[in-house]
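Take a sample.
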Amino acid sequence: KKVALADTVYIACMNGQWDAFQRTSNKAKFLWDDQLTDYAKRDAYHFQCGWAEVDEVYYPLNIGSNHWVLVQIDLPAHMFTVYDSDQALYDDACVEQAMRPMMKMLPYFLLNVEGVTDRDDLDLTTTTKPRDFDVEGYLPM
């Protein structure tokens, strides 16, 4: 499988859009910052595959400002998997709350990334709304 990595800057920028995204009535028309959409496009200079070419994206997520987990996005399956080295630190509800912005925003974000909407293996239906991403589980690292 081809994979891409997202860093903390990308996740911080996405999470920074959460309040504005929630206030937007027509989420499909949400205006994404070009810097965010450019992030998911191919960047050969930094050896980054474009998200139109990958099956999975991995990124670090900080929960409660003091605990890092690894998140795997399975794009075709619309699924997040959270890898956690200390599952006793935060319960599932807390982890899911930290994941909620990406779960809700990612389908709409992908509609704005060049090439991603052309993929046959992604269900990004726009007639009503894109399908949300789900959290599959919290696995130990």
Observations:
- The chain has a mean pLDDT of 84.
- The domain at 3-140 is CATH 3.30.310.130 (TATA-Binding Protein).
